[in-house]
Amino acid sequence: MTTSDAHQTLTDKVTEQIRRRLINGEFMPGQRLSEATLTQSLDVSRNTLREAFRNLTKEGLLTYAPNRGVAVAVPSMASIIDIYRVRRMIECQALAQAYPHHPARQRMRQAVDDALACRERQDWAGVGTANMAFHMAIVELADSERLNGMFALLLAELRLVFGLLQDPEFLHAPYADMNEQILQRVEAGDFGKAADALKDYLAQSERIVLASYARRVAN
């Protein structure tokens, strides 16, 4: 491996680490990111961090403004609508055509169990993170690395939407049970009904998120 290849691998790793922190809700929309803090916490050089910032800016997760630096992107209503349109296309199809004994089923079960445990503790951010893991596992049913990569980016954008609305209990609490119901259909081998339930789930989620976004803008 050349020095250039090693540097690129490190940049990719740092990009993924920051993207994962976005998915986990550790950064809020509009939050400015400190180079000094992140270089220390990630144990990387400023040059590597800046390259990771450029990657994430191209993905639409960060923004850059001269003299102001890098900040977490703030989602728009148009981006929310587009996120849900893509989710319906990817997730419902992956679920409807899934192999009955796919190992991603175990990750779906773990995500549901984690969400229910977090809800019991009223850890709503934890419920949100488990929800992300559940939907990532649904996409993994399709056995496509390209789809997995695309969907990981989509989840990061979605978490920014949830962070912007700042009401994790309202946004996440009802869906732990709905995920459980979808999983029960999967475990029973009824992937068609599971996909139909997911389609209804996404339609309800989109309505709630858009209404919450509209109220936030109005205020």
From TrEMBL:
Residues of the HTH gntR-type domain: 8-75
Alphabetical list of InterPro entries matching this protein: GntR_C, TF_FadR/GntR_C, Tscrpt_reg_HTH_GntR, WH-like_DNA-bd_sf, WH_DNA-bd_sf
The keyword Nucleus belongs to this UniProt entry's keyword annotation: no
Name of the protein in question: GntR family transcriptional regulator
Keywords attached to this entry: DNA-binding, Transcription, Transcription regulation
Keyword Lipoprotein: no
Gene Ontology molecular function terms on file: DNA binding; DNA-binding transcription factor activity
Protein source organism: Achromobacter spanius
Gene3D superfamilies linked to this entry: GntR ligand-binding domain-like, Winged helix-like DNA-binding domain superfamily/Winged helix DNA-binding domain
Top-level taxonomic group: Bacteria
Cited CDD domains: WHTH_GntR
